[in-house]
Amino acid sequence: MLLQLLSVLWEALSLQVVLVFLATFLLIADYKKQIRPRNYPPGPRPLPFLGSTLHLDFKKPQISAQKLAEKYGNVFGLQTGNIRIVVVNGLHLVKEALVHQGEYFVDRPKSPVLDKIFGSLGLVFSNGLIWKHQRRFALSTLRNFGLGKRSLEERIQEESRYLKEAIEAEKGQPFDPHFQINNAVSNIICSITFGDRFDYHDSRFQKLLHLLDEALLLQGSLWSILYDIIPSVMKYLPGPHHTLFKKWGQLKYFVREIIEKHKEDWNPSEPRDFIDAYLNEMAKEDSASSFHEENLLHSALDLFLAGTETTSTTLRWGLLYMAIYPDIQAKVQAEIDSVIGQSRQPAMDDRDRMPYTNAVVHEIQRISNIIPLNVPRLTTKDTTLAGFHIPKDTVLLTNLTSLLFDEDEWETPNVFNPGHFLENGQFRKREAFLPFSAGKRACLGEQLARTELFIFFTALIQKFTFQAPKNETLSREFRIGLTVSPLPYRICAFSR
Ligand code: HEM
User: Fold this and answer.
1) Which atom of ligand 1 is nearest to the CA of 370?
2) From the alpha carbon of 125, which atom of ligand 1 is closest?
3) Per the annotation, where are the binding residues?
4) How does pLDDT run across 46-86, given as a tens digit for each residue?
5) What is the pLDDT of residues 79-104, one digit of tens each?
6) CB-based contact 45:352 (threshold 8 Å)
Protein backbone atom coordinates (compact mmCIF):
# COMPACT_ATOMS: atom_id res chain seq x y z
CA MET A 1 0.00 0.00 0.00
CA LEU A 2 2.76 2.41 1.03
CA LEU A 3 4.78 1.44 -2.00
CA GLN A 4 1.80 2.13 -4.28
CA LEU A 5 1.28 5.55 -2.68
CA LEU A 6 4.97 6.40 -3.12
CA SER A 7 4.86 5.37 -6.76
CA VAL A 8 1.77 7.58 -7.48
CA LEU A 9 3.48 10.48 -5.67
CA TRP A 10 6.68 9.98 -7.66
CA GLU A 11 4.76 9.90 -10.96
CA ALA A 12 2.91 13.13 -10.10
CA LEU A 13 6.18 14.77 -9.06
CA SER A 14 8.02 13.65 -12.17
CA LEU A 15 5.17 15.02 -14.31
CA GLN A 16 5.51 18.32 -12.47
CA VAL A 17 9.27 18.29 -12.96
CA VAL A 18 8.83 17.64 -16.69
CA LEU A 19 6.27 20.46 -16.95
CA VAL A 20 8.51 22.91 -15.04
CA PHE A 21 11.47 21.87 -17.17
CA LEU A 22 9.45 22.33 -20.37
CA ALA A 23 8.12 25.74 -19.30
CA THR A 24 11.64 26.88 -18.37
CA PHE A 25 12.98 25.63 -21.69
CA LEU A 26 10.24 27.45 -23.64
CA LEU A 27 10.77 30.62 -21.61
CA ILE A 28 14.52 30.56 -22.25
CA ALA A 29 13.98 29.85 -25.96
CA ASP A 30 11.45 32.69 -26.13
CA TYR A 31 13.75 35.02 -24.15
CA LYS A 32 16.63 34.24 -26.53
CA LYS A 33 14.42 35.08 -29.53
CA GLN A 34 13.58 38.39 -27.93
CA ILE A 35 17.12 39.50 -27.14
CA ARG A 36 17.61 42.67 -29.11
CA PRO A 37 20.69 42.95 -31.27
CA ARG A 38 23.20 45.65 -30.30
CA ASN A 39 22.10 49.19 -31.13
CA TYR A 40 18.66 47.98 -32.18
CA PRO A 41 15.89 50.65 -32.17
CA PRO A 42 14.15 51.12 -28.79
CA GLY A 43 10.60 49.90 -28.19
CA PRO A 44 8.26 48.38 -25.64
CA ARG A 45 9.71 45.44 -23.71
CA PRO A 46 8.34 42.26 -25.32
CA LEU A 47 6.38 39.96 -22.99
CA PRO A 48 7.08 36.22 -22.89
CA PHE A 49 5.31 34.52 -25.83
CA LEU A 50 3.16 37.60 -26.52
CA GLY A 51 5.98 39.85 -27.70
CA SER A 52 4.71 43.39 -28.29
CA THR A 53 1.20 42.31 -29.30
CA LEU A 54 -0.42 43.96 -26.26
CA HIS A 55 0.99 47.32 -27.34
CA LEU A 56 -0.90 47.15 -30.62
CA ASP A 57 -4.59 47.82 -31.14
CA PHE A 58 -5.20 45.57 -34.15
CA LYS A 59 -8.36 47.50 -35.00
CA LYS A 60 -6.46 50.82 -35.10
CA PRO A 61 -2.78 49.94 -35.68
CA GLN A 62 -2.01 53.38 -37.14
CA ILE A 63 -3.08 55.01 -33.85
CA SER A 64 -0.92 52.59 -31.81
CA ALA A 65 2.03 53.37 -34.11
CA GLN A 66 1.59 57.13 -33.60
CA LYS A 67 1.50 56.69 -29.80
CA LEU A 68 4.58 54.45 -29.78
CA ALA A 69 6.47 56.95 -31.97
CA GLU A 70 5.69 59.71 -29.44
CA LYS A 71 7.16 57.54 -26.69
CA TYR A 72 10.14 55.87 -28.40
CA GLY A 73 11.00 58.19 -31.27
CA ASN A 74 10.90 58.03 -35.06
CA VAL A 75 12.41 54.56 -35.34
CA PHE A 76 11.13 51.93 -32.92
CA GLY A 77 11.15 48.15 -32.71
CA LEU A 78 8.40 45.60 -32.03
CA GLN A 79 8.28 41.83 -31.84
CA THR A 80 5.47 39.38 -32.62
CA GLY A 81 6.29 35.69 -32.40
CA ASN A 82 9.56 35.16 -34.29
CA ILE A 83 9.14 38.33 -36.28
CA ARG A 84 11.17 41.45 -35.58
CA ILE A 85 9.49 44.62 -36.83
CA VAL A 86 10.93 48.13 -37.14
CA VAL A 87 8.54 51.05 -37.66
CA VAL A 88 9.90 54.16 -39.36
CA ASN A 89 8.19 57.54 -38.97
CA GLY A 90 8.52 61.02 -40.45
CA LEU A 91 9.14 62.22 -44.00
CA HIS A 92 12.93 62.37 -43.81
CA LEU A 93 13.41 58.81 -42.51
CA VAL A 94 10.63 57.22 -44.58
CA LYS A 95 12.26 58.64 -47.73
CA GLU A 96 15.67 57.54 -46.49
CA ALA A 97 14.37 53.96 -46.20
CA LEU A 98 12.21 53.81 -49.33
CA VAL A 99 14.31 55.85 -51.73
CA HIS A 100 17.91 56.44 -50.63
CA GLN A 101 18.35 52.99 -49.09
CA GLY A 102 15.60 51.50 -51.26
CA GLU A 103 17.60 48.46 -52.36
CA TYR A 104 18.10 47.37 -48.73
CA PHE A 105 14.36 47.38 -48.09
CA VAL A 106 12.99 46.28 -51.44
CA ASP A 107 11.69 42.80 -50.52
CA ARG A 108 8.35 41.78 -49.03
CA PRO A 109 8.29 39.64 -45.88
CA LYS A 110 6.89 36.14 -46.03
CA SER A 111 4.13 35.11 -43.69
CA PRO A 112 2.23 31.83 -43.29
CA VAL A 113 -1.05 33.47 -44.43
CA LEU A 114 0.48 35.18 -47.48
CA ASP A 115 2.44 32.04 -48.35
CA LYS A 116 -0.71 29.96 -48.32
CA ILE A 117 -2.59 32.42 -50.54
CA PHE A 118 -0.01 33.97 -52.85
CA GLY A 119 3.09 31.77 -52.51
CA SER A 120 6.04 33.83 -53.74
CA LEU A 121 4.39 34.66 -57.03
CA GLY A 122 2.79 37.61 -58.78
CA LEU A 123 3.49 41.31 -58.31
CA VAL A 124 2.72 42.35 -54.75
CA PHE A 125 4.28 39.55 -52.65
CA SER A 126 7.07 38.20 -54.88
CA ASN A 127 10.76 39.05 -54.46
CA GLY A 128 14.04 39.02 -56.36
CA LEU A 129 14.10 38.24 -60.07
CA ILE A 130 10.50 37.00 -60.16
CA TRP A 131 9.32 40.40 -58.85
CA LYS A 132 11.63 42.38 -61.17
CA HIS A 133 10.46 40.52 -64.30
CA GLN A 134 6.77 40.53 -63.37
CA ARG A 135 6.78 44.22 -62.42
CA ARG A 136 8.65 45.35 -65.55
CA PHE A 137 6.33 43.31 -67.77
CA ALA A 138 3.18 44.55 -66.02
CA LEU A 139 4.22 48.21 -66.27
CA SER A 140 5.03 48.03 -69.97
CA THR A 141 1.88 46.01 -70.73
CA LEU A 142 -0.33 48.47 -68.82
CA ARG A 143 1.21 51.23 -70.93
CA ASN A 144 0.56 49.28 -74.15
CA PHE A 145 -3.07 48.89 -73.13
CA GLY A 146 -3.67 52.56 -72.59
CA LEU A 147 -2.03 53.78 -69.37
CA GLY A 148 -1.29 57.47 -69.86
CA LYS A 149 -3.16 57.48 -73.18
CA ARG A 150 -6.41 59.00 -74.36
CA SER A 151 -7.96 55.54 -74.92
CA LEU A 152 -7.84 54.69 -71.21
CA GLU A 153 -9.29 58.05 -70.29
CA GLU A 154 -12.18 57.40 -72.67
CA ARG A 155 -12.71 53.99 -71.04
CA ILE A 156 -12.99 55.66 -67.62
CA GLN A 157 -15.35 58.32 -69.00
CA GLU A 158 -17.55 55.60 -70.49
CA GLU A 159 -17.58 53.69 -67.19
CA SER A 160 -18.48 56.83 -65.26
CA ARG A 161 -21.51 57.18 -67.53
CA TYR A 162 -22.67 53.67 -66.48
CA LEU A 163 -22.01 54.52 -62.85
CA LYS A 164 -24.05 57.73 -63.07
CA GLU A 165 -26.95 55.81 -64.65
CA ALA A 166 -26.86 53.26 -61.81
CA ILE A 167 -26.84 55.99 -59.17
CA GLU A 168 -29.60 57.93 -60.93
CA ALA A 169 -31.76 54.80 -60.78
CA GLU A 170 -31.72 55.16 -56.95
CA LYS A 171 -33.97 58.26 -57.46
CA GLY A 172 -32.55 60.25 -54.55
CA GLN A 173 -33.45 57.52 -52.03
CA PRO A 174 -30.88 56.43 -49.40
CA PHE A 175 -28.55 53.73 -50.76
CA ASP A 176 -25.14 52.24 -50.05
CA PRO A 177 -22.90 53.05 -53.06
CA HIS A 178 -20.24 50.50 -52.05
CA PHE A 179 -20.65 47.84 -54.72
CA GLN A 180 -21.68 50.12 -57.57
CA ILE A 181 -18.45 52.07 -57.09
CA ASN A 182 -16.50 48.85 -56.63
CA ASN A 183 -17.94 47.48 -59.87
CA ALA A 184 -17.21 50.65 -61.84
CA VAL A 185 -13.60 50.92 -60.64
CA SER A 186 -12.98 47.20 -61.03
CA ASN A 187 -14.24 47.34 -64.63
CA ILE A 188 -11.27 49.53 -65.59
CA ILE A 189 -8.60 47.08 -64.40
CA CYS A 190 -10.76 44.15 -65.60
CA SER A 191 -10.91 45.54 -69.13
CA ILE A 192 -7.11 46.01 -69.19
CA THR A 193 -6.37 42.62 -67.60
CA PHE A 194 -9.22 40.36 -68.75
CA GLY A 195 -10.43 42.33 -71.79
CA ASP A 196 -13.96 42.72 -70.42
CA ARG A 197 -16.12 44.86 -68.18
CA PHE A 198 -18.95 43.39 -66.08
CA ASP A 199 -22.49 44.70 -65.91
CA TYR A 200 -23.56 46.00 -62.46
CA HIS A 201 -26.40 43.46 -62.52
CA ASP A 202 -24.10 40.52 -63.31
CA SER A 203 -24.82 38.51 -60.17
CA ARG A 204 -21.73 36.32 -60.55
CA PHE A 205 -19.41 39.33 -60.69
CA GLN A 206 -21.24 41.04 -57.83
CA LYS A 207 -20.74 37.87 -55.79
CA LEU A 208 -17.06 37.98 -56.63
CA LEU A 209 -16.72 41.61 -55.52
CA HIS A 210 -18.37 40.67 -52.22
CA LEU A 211 -15.93 37.76 -51.93
CA LEU A 212 -12.98 40.10 -52.47
CA ASP A 213 -14.31 42.56 -49.90
CA GLU A 214 -14.83 39.82 -47.30
CA ALA A 215 -11.44 38.24 -47.99
CA LEU A 216 -9.62 41.57 -47.60
CA LEU A 217 -11.46 42.28 -44.34
CA LEU A 218 -10.62 38.85 -42.94
CA GLN A 219 -7.01 39.35 -43.95
CA GLY A 220 -6.72 42.24 -41.50
CA SER A 221 -8.50 40.31 -38.71
CA LEU A 222 -7.09 38.92 -35.47
CA TRP A 223 -7.58 35.38 -36.84
CA SER A 224 -5.23 36.04 -39.69
CA ILE A 225 -2.68 37.59 -37.29
CA LEU A 226 -2.95 34.55 -35.00
CA TYR A 227 -2.42 32.25 -37.97
CA ASP A 228 0.77 34.17 -38.80
CA ILE A 229 2.05 33.83 -35.22
CA ILE A 230 1.15 30.18 -34.55
CA PRO A 231 0.30 28.53 -37.89
CA SER A 232 0.94 24.99 -36.66
CA VAL A 233 -1.78 25.40 -34.00
CA MET A 234 -4.23 27.51 -36.00
CA LYS A 235 -4.15 25.02 -38.87
CA TYR A 236 -6.09 22.59 -36.68
CA LEU A 237 -8.40 25.06 -34.95
CA PRO A 238 -11.72 25.96 -36.57
CA GLY A 239 -12.31 29.63 -37.28
CA PRO A 240 -12.70 32.35 -39.91
CA HIS A 241 -9.09 31.89 -41.10
CA HIS A 242 -10.27 28.80 -43.00
CA THR A 243 -13.02 30.90 -44.61
CA LEU A 244 -10.30 33.35 -45.68
CA PHE A 245 -8.39 30.63 -47.55
CA LYS A 246 -11.61 29.33 -49.09
CA LYS A 247 -12.57 32.77 -50.39
CA TRP A 248 -9.15 33.27 -51.97
CA GLY A 249 -9.52 29.83 -53.55
CA GLN A 250 -12.77 30.99 -55.18
CA LEU A 251 -11.18 34.22 -56.40
CA LYS A 252 -8.31 32.27 -57.95
CA TYR A 253 -10.80 29.92 -59.61
CA PHE A 254 -12.51 32.93 -61.25
CA VAL A 255 -9.21 34.22 -62.71
CA ARG A 256 -8.13 30.70 -63.74
CA GLU A 257 -11.35 30.26 -65.71
CA ILE A 258 -10.76 33.52 -67.58
CA ILE A 259 -7.19 32.41 -68.40
CA GLU A 260 -8.47 29.06 -69.75
CA LYS A 261 -10.98 30.88 -71.96
CA HIS A 262 -8.19 33.16 -73.25
CA LYS A 263 -6.06 30.13 -74.12
CA GLU A 264 -8.89 28.78 -76.29
CA ASP A 265 -9.26 31.87 -78.48
CA TRP A 266 -5.76 33.34 -78.21
CA ASN A 267 -4.39 34.95 -81.36
CA PRO A 268 -0.70 35.82 -80.81
CA SER A 269 -0.73 38.51 -83.47
CA GLU A 270 -3.61 40.39 -81.83
CA PRO A 271 -3.18 40.50 -78.05
CA ARG A 272 -6.40 41.93 -76.59
CA ASP A 273 -5.36 42.43 -72.97
CA PHE A 274 -2.82 41.66 -70.22
CA ILE A 275 -3.56 37.92 -70.27
CA ASP A 276 -3.02 37.63 -74.05
CA ALA A 277 0.20 39.66 -73.80
CA TYR A 278 1.37 37.34 -71.01
CA LEU A 279 0.57 34.23 -73.08
CA ASN A 280 2.68 35.78 -75.87
CA GLU A 281 5.54 36.36 -73.44
CA MET A 282 5.31 32.75 -72.20
CA ALA A 283 5.50 31.52 -75.79
CA LYS A 284 8.75 33.40 -76.51
CA GLU A 285 11.80 31.16 -76.63
CA ASP A 286 13.97 33.62 -74.75
CA SER A 287 11.49 34.70 -72.08
CA ALA A 288 12.56 34.57 -68.43
CA SER A 289 11.71 31.35 -66.62
CA SER A 290 9.33 33.17 -64.25
CA PHE A 291 6.81 33.62 -67.09
CA HIS A 292 4.64 30.60 -66.45
CA GLU A 293 0.96 30.00 -65.87
CA GLU A 294 0.99 30.22 -62.06
CA ASN A 295 2.71 33.61 -62.25
CA LEU A 296 0.18 34.71 -64.85
CA LEU A 297 -2.61 33.72 -62.45
CA HIS A 298 -1.04 35.60 -59.53
CA SER A 299 -0.05 38.73 -61.49
CA ALA A 300 -3.58 38.98 -62.93
CA LEU A 301 -5.10 38.38 -59.48
CA ASP A 302 -2.84 41.06 -57.95
CA LEU A 303 -3.83 43.60 -60.58
CA PHE A 304 -7.49 42.77 -60.01
CA LEU A 305 -7.31 43.09 -56.21
CA ALA A 306 -4.95 46.11 -56.05
CA GLY A 307 -6.77 47.86 -58.87
CA THR A 308 -10.24 47.33 -57.39
CA GLU A 309 -10.04 47.80 -53.65
CA THR A 310 -7.82 50.88 -53.27
CA THR A 311 -9.38 53.34 -55.70
CA SER A 312 -12.96 52.38 -54.88
CA THR A 313 -12.33 52.72 -51.12
CA THR A 314 -10.90 56.21 -51.74
CA LEU A 315 -13.94 57.19 -53.82
CA ARG A 316 -16.29 55.92 -51.11
CA TRP A 317 -14.47 58.14 -48.61
CA GLY A 318 -14.76 60.96 -51.14
CA LEU A 319 -18.56 60.81 -51.41
CA LEU A 320 -18.83 60.54 -47.63
CA TYR A 321 -16.71 63.68 -47.12
CA MET A 322 -18.73 65.58 -49.74
CA ALA A 323 -21.96 64.76 -47.90
CA ILE A 324 -20.40 65.74 -44.56
CA TYR A 325 -19.03 69.04 -45.96
CA PRO A 326 -21.73 70.47 -48.29
CA ASP A 327 -19.91 73.83 -48.61
CA ILE A 328 -16.84 72.12 -50.02
CA GLN A 329 -19.02 70.06 -52.37
CA ALA A 330 -20.72 73.27 -53.58
CA LYS A 331 -17.33 74.86 -54.31
CA VAL A 332 -16.28 71.83 -56.36
CA GLN A 333 -19.56 72.03 -58.28
CA ALA A 334 -19.06 75.74 -58.96
CA GLU A 335 -15.60 75.04 -60.39
CA ILE A 336 -16.92 72.15 -62.51
CA ASP A 337 -19.73 74.35 -63.85
CA SER A 338 -17.36 77.14 -64.85
CA VAL A 339 -14.60 74.97 -66.38
CA ILE A 340 -16.48 71.97 -67.83
CA GLY A 341 -20.17 72.84 -67.68
CA GLN A 342 -22.88 70.19 -67.74
CA SER A 343 -22.75 69.05 -71.34
CA ARG A 344 -19.46 67.15 -71.54
CA GLN A 345 -17.47 64.62 -69.54
CA PRO A 346 -14.53 65.66 -67.34
CA ALA A 347 -11.11 64.89 -68.85
CA MET A 348 -7.56 64.93 -67.50
CA ASP A 349 -6.81 68.10 -69.50
CA ASP A 350 -9.29 69.92 -67.25
CA ARG A 351 -7.33 69.16 -64.09
CA ASP A 352 -4.82 72.00 -64.44
CA ARG A 353 -7.66 74.48 -64.73
CA MET A 354 -9.43 73.03 -61.67
CA PRO A 355 -7.11 73.62 -58.70
CA TYR A 356 -9.88 73.41 -56.12
CA THR A 357 -11.25 70.05 -57.32
CA ASN A 358 -7.72 68.71 -57.64
CA ALA A 359 -6.98 69.86 -54.07
CA VAL A 360 -10.18 68.17 -52.81
CA VAL A 361 -9.23 64.86 -54.47
CA HIS A 362 -5.78 65.05 -52.85
CA GLU A 363 -7.25 65.96 -49.46
CA ILE A 364 -9.63 62.97 -49.68
CA GLN A 365 -6.62 60.72 -50.24
CA ARG A 366 -4.63 62.35 -47.44
CA ILE A 367 -7.30 62.15 -44.77
CA SER A 368 -8.66 58.74 -45.72
CA ASN A 369 -5.12 57.33 -45.41
CA ILE A 370 -6.20 53.95 -46.73
CA ILE A 371 -2.84 52.12 -46.34
CA PRO A 372 -1.71 53.71 -43.08
CA LEU A 373 1.44 51.67 -42.42
CA ASN A 374 2.29 51.07 -46.09
CA VAL A 375 2.71 47.53 -47.44
CA PRO A 376 5.47 45.85 -45.34
CA ARG A 377 9.03 45.53 -46.61
CA LEU A 378 11.85 43.22 -45.55
CA THR A 379 15.50 44.16 -44.98
CA THR A 380 17.68 42.40 -47.53
CA LYS A 381 21.05 43.19 -45.80
CA ASP A 382 22.24 44.43 -42.42
CA THR A 383 22.00 48.20 -42.51
CA THR A 384 21.84 51.37 -40.40
CA LEU A 385 18.92 53.76 -40.22
CA ALA A 386 18.99 56.93 -38.09
CA GLY A 387 22.07 55.48 -36.42
CA PHE A 388 20.27 52.25 -35.41
CA HIS A 389 21.31 48.79 -36.52
CA ILE A 390 18.63 47.06 -38.64
CA PRO A 391 19.57 43.40 -39.15
CA LYS A 392 18.83 41.47 -42.36
CA ASP A 393 15.33 39.89 -42.37
CA THR A 394 13.76 42.60 -40.20
CA VAL A 395 10.25 43.60 -41.28
CA LEU A 396 10.09 47.33 -42.05
CA LEU A 397 6.89 49.33 -41.72
CA THR A 398 7.09 52.84 -43.14
CA ASN A 399 4.36 54.70 -41.30
CA LEU A 400 2.55 56.75 -43.96
CA THR A 401 0.21 58.12 -41.27
CA SER A 402 3.19 59.90 -39.73
CA LEU A 403 3.60 61.78 -43.04
CA LEU A 404 -0.03 62.40 -43.94
CA PHE A 405 -0.88 63.70 -40.44
CA ASP A 406 2.43 65.33 -39.49
CA GLU A 407 1.75 68.52 -37.49
CA ASP A 408 4.92 70.11 -38.88
CA GLU A 409 3.83 69.50 -42.47
CA TRP A 410 0.10 70.23 -42.44
CA GLU A 411 -1.61 73.32 -41.04
CA THR A 412 -4.64 71.37 -39.70
CA PRO A 413 -3.72 67.66 -40.02
CA ASN A 414 -6.90 66.28 -38.45
CA VAL A 415 -9.32 68.52 -40.34
CA PHE A 416 -10.63 67.94 -43.88
CA ASN A 417 -9.10 71.03 -45.43
CA PRO A 418 -8.51 71.31 -49.22
CA GLY A 419 -6.44 74.43 -48.39
CA HIS A 420 -3.58 72.03 -47.60
CA PHE A 421 -3.09 71.71 -51.36
CA LEU A 422 -3.73 75.32 -52.38
CA GLU A 423 -1.56 78.44 -52.49
CA ASN A 424 -2.93 81.75 -53.80
CA GLY A 425 -5.76 79.82 -55.43
CA GLN A 426 -3.36 77.54 -57.32
CA PHE A 427 -2.76 73.82 -56.76
CA ARG A 428 0.21 73.19 -54.47
CA LYS A 429 2.16 69.91 -54.45
CA ARG A 430 3.15 68.67 -50.98
CA GLU A 431 6.23 66.55 -50.34
CA ALA A 432 4.66 64.73 -47.41
CA PHE A 433 1.81 63.48 -49.62
CA LEU A 434 2.95 59.91 -50.31
CA PRO A 435 -0.17 57.68 -50.25
CA PHE A 436 1.29 55.64 -53.13
CA SER A 437 4.59 55.26 -51.27
CA ALA A 438 7.94 55.96 -52.99
CA GLY A 439 11.00 54.28 -54.47
CA LYS A 440 11.43 51.22 -56.67
CA ARG A 441 8.60 49.28 -55.11
CA ALA A 442 6.07 52.14 -54.98
CA CYS A 443 2.52 51.60 -56.24
CA LEU A 444 2.55 50.28 -59.78
CA GLY A 445 -0.91 51.68 -60.48
CA GLU A 446 -0.39 55.27 -59.29
CA GLN A 447 -1.00 56.89 -62.67
CA LEU A 448 -4.05 54.73 -63.32
CA ALA A 449 -5.43 55.46 -59.84
CA ARG A 450 -4.93 59.23 -60.19
CA THR A 451 -6.73 59.25 -63.55
CA GLU A 452 -9.59 57.15 -62.17
CA LEU A 453 -9.95 59.26 -59.03
CA PHE A 454 -10.08 62.57 -60.90
CA ILE A 455 -12.48 61.47 -63.65
CA PHE A 456 -14.87 59.36 -61.54
CA PHE A 457 -15.01 61.90 -58.70
CA THR A 458 -15.50 64.93 -60.95
CA ALA A 459 -18.11 63.14 -63.09
CA LEU A 460 -20.14 62.18 -60.00
CA ILE A 461 -20.04 65.65 -58.41
CA GLN A 462 -20.86 67.21 -61.79
CA LYS A 463 -24.04 65.15 -61.99
CA PHE A 464 -25.18 64.77 -58.34
CA THR A 465 -25.29 66.47 -54.96
CA PHE A 466 -24.59 63.92 -52.23
CA GLN A 467 -26.35 64.28 -48.88
CA ALA A 468 -26.90 62.34 -45.67
CA PRO A 469 -30.37 60.71 -45.55
CA LYS A 470 -32.91 62.69 -43.54
CA ASN A 471 -32.42 62.26 -39.76
CA GLU A 472 -29.23 60.21 -40.26
CA THR A 473 -25.74 61.32 -39.27
CA LEU A 474 -22.82 60.14 -41.37
CA SER A 475 -19.88 58.71 -39.46
CA ARG A 476 -16.16 58.92 -40.25
CA GLU A 477 -15.51 55.71 -38.29
CA PHE A 478 -13.52 53.13 -40.20
CA ARG A 479 -12.90 49.40 -40.40
CA ILE A 480 -9.58 47.86 -41.13
CA GLY A 481 -8.84 45.05 -43.56
CA LEU A 482 -6.16 45.24 -46.19
CA THR A 483 -7.18 48.92 -46.45
CA VAL A 484 -8.84 51.37 -44.07
CA SER A 485 -12.38 51.82 -45.37
CA PRO A 486 -15.46 53.69 -44.14
CA LEU A 487 -18.06 51.73 -42.18
CA PRO A 488 -20.97 50.84 -44.48
CA TYR A 489 -23.07 53.99 -44.97
CA ARG A 490 -26.16 55.14 -46.84
CA ILE A 491 -26.29 58.34 -48.81
CA CYS A 492 -28.75 60.21 -51.08
CA ALA A 493 -27.70 61.35 -54.56
CA PHE A 494 -29.83 64.20 -55.96
CA SER A 495 -29.49 64.90 -59.68
CA ARG A 496 -28.39 68.46 -60.42
C1 HEM B 1 -5.92 55.15 -54.46
C2 HEM B 1 -5.40 54.12 -55.04
C3 HEM B 1 -4.13 53.41 -54.64
C4 HEM B 1 -3.31 53.57 -53.54
C5 HEM B 1 -3.47 54.54 -52.39
C6 HEM B 1 -2.25 52.59 -53.66
C7 HEM B 1 -1.21 52.45 -52.76
C8 HEM B 1 -0.22 51.49 -52.84
C9 HEM B 1 0.84 51.32 -51.88
C10 HEM B 1 1.04 52.16 -50.63
C11 HEM B 1 1.59 50.26 -52.30
C12 HEM B 1 2.82 49.68 -51.59
C13 HEM B 1 4.06 50.33 -52.14
C14 HEM B 1 5.32 50.03 -51.38
O15 HEM B 1 5.53 48.90 -50.90
O16 HEM B 1 6.15 50.93 -51.25
C17 HEM B 1 1.02 49.77 -53.53
C18 HEM B 1 1.51 48.71 -54.26
C19 HEM B 1 0.94 48.25 -55.42
N20 HEM B 1 -0.13 48.79 -56.09
FE21 HEM B 1 -1.21 50.39 -55.53
N22 HEM B 1 -2.44 51.86 -54.81
C23 HEM B 1 -3.56 52.34 -55.44
C24 HEM B 1 -4.08 51.90 -56.65
C25 HEM B 1 -3.57 50.90 -57.42
C26 HEM B 1 -4.11 50.48 -58.70
C27 HEM B 1 -5.29 51.10 -59.43
C28 HEM B 1 -3.35 49.41 -59.11
C29 HEM B 1 -3.55 48.64 -60.40
C30 HEM B 1 -2.71 48.53 -61.32
C31 HEM B 1 -2.33 49.18 -58.10
C32 HEM B 1 -1.38 48.18 -58.14
C33 HEM B 1 -0.38 48.00 -57.19
C34 HEM B 1 0.58 46.91 -57.25
C35 HEM B 1 0.64 45.81 -58.31
C36 HEM B 1 1.42 47.08 -56.14
C37 HEM B 1 2.61 46.20 -55.74
C38 HEM B 1 3.87 46.83 -56.29
C39 HEM B 1 5.12 46.02 -55.98
O40 HEM B 1 5.17 45.32 -54.98
O41 HEM B 1 6.07 46.14 -56.77
N42 HEM B 1 -2.50 50.10 -57.10
N43 HEM B 1 -0.08 50.54 -53.85
Assistant:
1) 5
2) 40
3) 443
4) 776 667 767 777 788 889 999 999 999 999 999 877 789 99
5) 877 789 999 999 999 999 999 999 99
6) no
